[in-house]
Design a protein that fits this description.
Layout (H helix, E strand, L loop, with lengths): L1 H7 L4 E5 L12 E5 L5 H11 L3 E4 L10 H21 L5 E7 L25 H15 L7 E7 L1 E3 L9 H7 L2 E3 L6 E2 L1 E3 H12 L6 E5 L5 E2 H4 L4 E3 L3 H13 L22 H7 L7 H9 L1
Helix pairs in contact: 2-3, 3-4
Length: 294
Amino acid sequence: MIVLNLISKNIPVVGLDIRESVQNRPGEYFVFYKCCITERERLEVIFRKEQPTHVIHLACTFNKVRDRKKEHYIDIGGSTNIIKISDMTTSVRQLIFSSSTAAYGAHDDNPEWIKETDPLRPGKYRYAVNKKLIEDVYSQTPVRKDLHLVFCRICTVIGPTYNKPASVFSILVKLPWLPKFVRENKIQFLHAEDLVSLIDLIMSDNQISGIYNIAPDSYAPVKDLVPGKKFIGIPVFVIMIALVILWHLKIVNLEPAGAKASIYPILLDPAKIISRFNYKFKFSSREAFEDVKK
């Protein structure tokens, strides 16, 4: 998505990932390195050779490892490598870190619209906890004055060609029924085109730094997204017990602590990013959801 957009503008891109795929095959404007963010020495060699000007840090474990210490080593340790090497590499002028809506936490006292100044309360959800820890590290790490750090707290991203298996979208659409307590829950979906456009604007802004909510200025109740769905009255604790079992059996990739978001919505206020770029979203949350269904 982001890479293809940059390449289409003839902007050279250097990609790093732990696995190769059809999407990251080398081309005229794309160089790929099979590398993990925990490989400090290899990262230093790549940065020294390629001399990047912008670094977009999207890497994370996202519940896939199922080992708390290993997740911490990859997410926090690897992210520490990224900021320190970016600081050492004087060509780098901007480091964009993709944080998450989840870092705010799902709580019954969440305001309807959460601002960047509201506290991060991730609870026990490990993915969210790690995002907060990375933000803490980045906020406390001294860097060059000409290295601008941008924290993007991003809501769920979807689009015609971007839909993760076992994602929120998949759960809403594929399950034959849903528990009744999610019927009124409000969800934000960011269309992939809006994400690409906003990242493009951020990269073009030589002065931007700080924290920004990256989410549409709209939300949609679950009942409106899947109007034909059956909603069954099952107690929350029964669903949580089932999730714990399925999680430990590795049947689902939804950590039980993360399921609280289906009860208490986390809705981001994008006023700050809208104001900076006078941005108008191409898709509402509902339109983004419907665009995947087509």
